[in-house]
């Protein structure tokens, strides 16, 4: 490929590339697929040039995603970047799933105003065992290259680390937003924190990455990789950042601490019901970021809804796709059947049975002990909102004492348990 540098204009780059590698309709389609749902693609003309060269030479591009094996707590928000990786994998490119077992020892300070404690080797080893298994629910395991950055980071040694550090300045490090805020605020910055973006950048050198993916909070680190590749005489990688998925509340990013999340290990019925609970407007963002359907299919569905089709039907399509991905098509069908049954006032066939002693017991404590609410406070809130039923009868008295017996306890629209109270 013609050498690309920052002094060349987009028109110059495309003209030079097109003279050697044609921008075919297939290349243009791959370019649009790359941009689908992304927050930022840098540099777009360079990526188009890489795609054109790859198509002409039949040499797949090398696409990297690095994840540090922190304690796994995977929800749909975490899968946004993995979905993009799968789209690029389906275009025929080489996907590298990089486990940061070495960089985890440093601790990533991205987005933090305090030093992040590094993980121990034991914690890293334990967490790394689950990462690829979780990623394989989205990626094609047979076409995914798994690497650990300790492969090249540990052999660097002290001399290699010093040489690497000489290729980047403190001034440039302080351009990073969180470092700048901490420096101005008098909050300590440890020297080892500067090593994290350097080591992540060196991963791109070691892997000869053509494109690196990450969340919006990783932009600085991704750019360091691009600059280090230039320092080592390599063609610089492009970078692609993905937006943060908005949670079920339609306001904040998806987060377990905010309770607005959909966990990938949740049971099919819970997952299905949560997806159907999102707003009609938010649904299209979920389609773009989470669905494997083509943009044309999504646009056609959007047009159908605009012309009068019930938005709920579109949500059902999305919910069944997501449940099938993380469970099975049979589970998705059963979840739809149960949802429709509950919508008519029915009770699902398969609900947990719970034995509780201590009758008579307060209704809030009963709900808590049945694991239908995380606390008595939350249970009382559900009672006040009319969301608690015993055998279909709405409970409004927070002071109710429930006597011994067997009955179905319902909290909200989706939580049921058959209670054996003694």
UniProtKB/TrEMBL annotation:
GO molecular function terms listed in the Swiss-Prot or TrEMBL record: ATP binding; RNA binding; tyrosine-tRNA ligase activity
Keywords of this entry: Aminoacyl-tRNA synthetase, ATP-binding, Cytoplasm, Ligase, Nucleotide-binding, Protein biosynthesis, RNA-binding
Binding site for ATP: 256
Cellular localisation: Cytoplasm
Residues in RNA-binding S4 domain copies: 361-420
Gene3D superfamilies the UniProt entry points to: HUPs, RNA-binding S4 domain, Tyrosyl-Transfer RNA Synthetase
Residue positions of motif 'KMSKS' region: 253-257
Motif extent ('HIGH' region): 69-78
Enzyme Commission number(s) from the entry: 6.1.1.1
PROSITE patterns: AA_TRNA_LIGASE_I, S4
Matches recorded under CDD domains: S4 (cd00165), TyrRS_core (cd00805)
Catalytic activity: tRNA(Tyr) + L-tyrosine + ATP = L-tyrosyl-tRNA(Tyr) + AMP + diphosphate + H(+)
Entry annotated with the keyword Nucleotide-binding: yes
Enzyme superclass (EC): ligase
Domain of life of the source: Bacteria
GO CC aspect terms: cytosol
Matches recorded under PANTHER family: TYROSINE--TRNA LIGASE, TYROSYL-TRNA SYNTHETASE
Family statement drawn from the similarity comment of this UniProt entry: Belongs to the class-I aminoacyl-tRNA synthetase family. TyrS type 2 subfamily.
Quaternary structure (record): Homodimer.
Function: Catalyzes the attachment of tyrosine to tRNA(Tyr) in a two-step reaction: tyrosine is first activated by ATP to form Tyr-AMP and then transferred to the acceptor end of tRNA(Tyr).
Name assigned to this protein: Tyrosine--tRNA ligase
Organism in which the protein naturally occurs: Polynucleobacter kasalickyi
Gene: tyrS
